[in-house]
Design goal:
The longest helix is centred in the N-terminal third of the chain and has 22 residues, at about 1-25. This protein has helices at about 1-25, 30, 190-195; strands at about 35-50, 55-70, 75-95, 95-110, 110-115, 120-140, 145-150, 160-170, 175-185, 200-214. The protein is built from three helices and ten strands, in the order H-H-E-E-E-E-E-E-E-E-E-H-E. The chain has a single domain (about 1-214), classed as Porin. It comes from Flagellimonas yonaguniensis. InterPro entries: Beta-barrel_OMP_2 (IPR025665).
C-alpha cells in the first residue's frame, strides 16, 4: 500500500509539471472567485505509533468547502466534512497469530487549508484540521470466523487535531487534490481501546475532487 501511495504522489507531481509546461497560467475559476464547492474522495487511512503496527485500509470523506481568495497567490479554504478513518492490525496470543482487527473511526472534521497558487494550474496546500468523533465500530477476522461490532465511544478521545499538506490541480470548475493528513492527538483514551491502541494517532492519504458551485 505504501508503494501505491508513493506512486500516486509521483504521478500527481509529474502531471502538475506537465500542466505547467503545456497549459501555462490562466485565470481559472477556482482562484479568482469566492465560491462554495462539494468535496469527496477515497482515502487510505492507518494509525502511526511507535508501539502499534497498523496497516492501511480504505476510507472516504464527503463534505463542503468554501474558497476565499486573499490575493492572486493565496486563498483560504475552510471545509466541513464527514471522514471515516482508522487502521488495521494483527493481534497475537502467546506469540501466535490469532487474527486481524479493523478499527473504523467516524469523524466530523473542519479542515482549514491555505492554497498557495503557483504560476500554473498547480497549488501547494498546507493547513490543519480539527476532528470530532461521532461513532466507532470494528470488524475482525480469524482463521475460523469473521465478525463486527460497535465500540465504546467513551474509550476514545472525542477530539482529533492534525496537520495537512498536499498539492492541487486547478480546473475551470473544480480541483483535483492529493493530500496527506498527519494526526497529532492520540485516538484512544482508556479501557480496552487504550490497551490495544496506546499512542496511536490517525494518518491518511486522500485523493479527491472539489466541484465548485457557481
Amino acid at each position: 500500500m505504501k508503494r501505491i501511495v508513493v506512486f500516486a504522489i509521483l504521478t500527481m507531481m509529474i502531471y502538475g509539471v506537465q500542466a505547467q509546461n503545456n497549459l501555462g497560467y490562466y485565470p481559472v475559476f477556482s482562484i479568482h472567485d469566492p465560491h462554495f464547492g462539494i468535496t469527496f474522495g477515497p482515502q487510505a487511512t492507518s494509525f502511526h505509533s511507535d508501539s502499534y503496527d497498523s496497516e492501511f485500509q480504505f476510507g472516504f470523506f464527503l463534505g463542503g468547502s468554501f474558497s476565499l481568495p486573499l490575493s492572486k497567490r493565496f486563498s483560504l479554504e475552510p471545509q466541513l466534512v464527514y471522514s471515516r478513518k482508522g487502521g488495521k492490525g494483527d493481534y497475537y496470543i502467546n506469540n501466535f497469530y490469532e487474527g486481524s482487527v479493523r478499527f473504523k473511526l467516524h469523524y466530523l472534521e473542519t479542515p482549514l487549508l491555505l492554497n498557495i497558487h503557483t504560476k500554473s494550474v498547480v497549488d501547494i496546500i498546507i493547513g490543519g484540521y480539527t476532528g470530532f468523533l461521532v461513532d466507532t465500530n470494528f470488524d475482525y477476522s480469524t482463521y475460523y470466523y469473521y465478525g463486527y461490532g460497535e465500540l465504546d465511544n467513551d474509550q476514545f478521545e472525542k477530539m482529533d487535531l492534525g496537520l495537512i499538506t498536499g498539492i492541487g490541480i486547478n480546473m475551470p470548475n473544480g480541483k483535483i487534490v492529493l493530500k496527506y493528513s498527519h494526526g497529532l492527538s492520540d485516538v484512544a483514551k482508556d479501557g480496552n481501546a487504550y490497551l490495544f491502541l496506546e499512542g496511536a494517532k490517525n494518518q491518511s492519504f486522500s485523493f479527491s475532487y472539489i466541484g465548485y458551485i457557481r
